[in-house]
Structures are given as structure tokens and as C-alpha cells.
Amino acid sequence: MNKILKILGSIFLVIGIMMLSAGLYFKISFEEFRKNAKETTAVITSISGTGDSNNVLVEFIVDGTRYSGSLNYYNSNMYVGKEEKIYYQIDNPNKFKSKNGENLLSVVFLIIGAVFPILGILFLVIPILKSKKQKRVLSYNYVIQASIVGCSIDTTVSINGRCPYRLEANYISPLDGKLYSYKSDELWADVTPILTQRQITTIPVYVNPNNYAEYYMDISALKNLIGN
């Protein structure tokens, strides 16, 4: 599982950086375009095509001259006759861009580009924090034998269409009589038949002797039996 999280984290991080770079590129390009451009109002004269591939033609007038061309932007609220803000190049009005379209494009890429790296970092950090916690608990070298209560499928996790199993166990502390419930890391097979056949009723759980809720269930022997 840790390996999968690291792979996902790397993928999300790379995609995020690429999207962020694209968003910055569109933003900078548009700002450069605006330096030698003027804002005006164009009128939509026709809309052809379907879905996001619609071709929107607009028309506008600069110094008494009529210009027309395809708009680099479309949304479902557009209709023939609607006015659209555009920027056109002062020395060549045939070169123009939609004000709303360019802003929306850069914003979308920047937002996605910001979210994906955060998710990527989380995917990379989670295994590290989990490993540190495991090492800390193991360092106490304090083991209890928790009573196995079952092996259930974890539907909250799915990898390549498969959901893992988790071993569940309970332990009643002789110190305060409190019941502690524990769950194992992922098992990619139901170990119930093995538990029944070998009459395994307990599982070793490493705990913090000062806090039984901080634990690590040792399922290495079961993993070897099922080939995980």
C-alpha cells in the first residue's frame, strides 16, 4: 500500500506541476497580449458545432472598420447577438482574444495545478508518517496478544478494482478494564480459512505501554501464509 501511495503521490505531483506551469503560461501569455491590445465589445454572429467543440464567430468595429473571426472561447450561455468583451491587437485587430475565455482558462489550470501537488505531497507524506509511527511503537518492544474477532473487507479502499481485507482484534487492558479495538494493515486475501484451520485466535499487537490506543498489529506471519 505504501508503494502504491508513493506512486500516486509522484503522479499527482508531476501532473500538478505541469498544470500549474500551463496555467502560468496562459496567464503570462495573455498579459503579454494585453500590453499591445485594447478592450472592446464584440457581438456573436454565429455558433456552430456541438458541445465544447462549438465554433463561435464574432464581429466588432475598430475605427470604422468591421472585423470578424473565431472566438477562442465558448460556454453554454452564449447565443447569437450576445455581446462579448475581447482584446484586440492595436496594430492588427484581426488578432483578438476573449477576455473571459483567457481568464477562465488560466484560472482552471492554476486551480487544478495547485490542488494536485497538495494531494501528491499528502500521498507521499502519509507513508512516511505511518512508518515513523510504526517504528516508534516497535521501539517500546511491548507486545500484547489481542483476541481476533474477524477478518472483513475494507470497501473504503479500492486498487485496480480490488478491496483489501483487514484483521480485527480486541484487547481488554488488565490495568483499567478498557476495551481496545485494533485493525491490521491491508491483507489481499481473506485469512479466515487459515485462522480456522490453524486454530489461530490471537494476534501480536505492539503498543505504547502508556497508551494502548497507539499500536501496530504484526500480521507478517499471515502475509507469508497468503503470499502477500
Largest sheet: 5 strands, antiparallel
Query: How many DSSP-defined strands?
Result: 10
The helix fraction, in percent, is 25-40%
Overall shape: it is elongated
Task: Please tell me the overall pLDDT.
Answer: 88
Give the structural class.
alpha+beta
CA-CA gap between termini: 11 Å
Strand order in the largest sheet: 3-2-1-4-5
Q: Tally the helices: what do you get?
A: 4
> How many whole angstroms does the radius of gyration measure?
30 Å
| Series of secondary-structure elements, N-terminal to C-terminal | HEEEEEHEEEHEEH
pLDDT below 50 for ≥5 consecutive residues: which ranges?
none
Proportion of residues in extended strands: 25-35%
Task: Describe, in plain words, how this protein is organized in 3D.
This protein has about 230 residues and is of the alpha+beta class. It is about 40% helix and about 35% strand. It has four helices and ten strands. The chain has helices spanning about 1-35, 100-140, 190-195, 220-225, and strands spanning about 35-50, 55-60, 65-70, 85-90, 95-100, 145-155, 165-170, 180-185, 200-210, 210-215. The strands form two sheets. Strands 3-2-1-4-5 form a five-stranded antiparallel β-sheet. The radius of gyration is 30 Å and the shape is elongated.
